[in-house]
Fold this sequence. Notes:
By secondary structure, this protein is α+β, with helices and mostly antiparallel strands. It has a single domain, classed as Gcn5-related N-acetyltransferase (GNAT) (Aminopeptidase). The protein contains four helices and eight strands. It has helices at 29-36, 57-65, 111-127, 141-149, and strands at residues 14-16, 19-23, 71-78, 81-92, 95-102, 131-137, 153-157, 164-170. An eight-stranded mixed sheet has the order 1-2-3-4-5-6-8-7, with helices on both faces. Strand 3 (71-78) and strand 4 form a beta hairpin. Helix 1 (29-36) crosses helix 2. The radius of gyration is 17 Å and the shape is globular. 28% of the residues are buried. Coenzyme A (COA) binds next to strand 5, helix 3, strand 6 and helix 4. Coenzyme A (COA) is lined by residues 43, 46, 99-102, 107-113, 134, 136, 140-143, 145-146, 149.
Amino acid sequence: MSERRIRRKPVETISGDGIILRPVAVADSEIMFNLVKDWPDYLRFFWGPFEPGCKTLNDWQRRNATKHPGLKSFVILNDETLVGQIEAGNLGDGKWIIGFWIGTQYTGRGYAKKAVTALTDHIFKAFGAQTIDANVDRENLTAKAVAIDTGFRLSGSHPDIPNHLVFALNRPEK
Ligand SMILES: CC(C)(COP(=O)(O)OP(=O)(O)OC[C@H]1O[C@@H](n2cnc3c(N)ncnc32)[C@H](O)[C@@H]1OP(=O)(O)O)[C@@H](O)C(=O)NCCC(=O)NCCS
């Protein structure tokens, strides 16, 4: 009798400077929830991981099980430890947007910068993006530092989100 083999699609991961980005799985929900559950409410209104209403473990499981068309969500792994999340959304016409967070106990170790660099490189190469935006609260000095140090430049105030700036990274010239 011939052996039946189950062919699993390989999971697409992105590597960068010691960290790995792996697509978010439902099984990651509990760890992710525990990393952000004590955060103040205002942080939950960032684009991406903090959609309003995503407050309980159930919400996280539901969110991670739902396919968002055009949204690519990755956990950030350092030595197999889940330290945060980064996402990229396709806005059309060559324009993408990213959002990211790092669990408080893992901040200040360069993980956000490494993840942003790895994901933006990937978006330019794999999807032919022309511009990548990041929306940052005016008072979020750390996120501003991450954006500027990874090559983003201020492009203006966000037209719809109060108190937010838009930083943009253009496709590198060949
Ligand atoms: C913003 C956030 C992602 C940063 O993560 P992180 O892993 O600590 O970031 P990194 O270590 O890669 O880089 C942080 C940089 O900011 C700098 N920084 C920290 N506080 C700063 C301040 N008050 N002013 C200026 N720079 C500051 C650090 O010195 C570091 O730069 P360095 O490597 O030159 O020392 C994390 O704090 C977070 O998740 N915050 C809540 C969610 C959020 O704000 N997401 C971003 C939405 S756009």
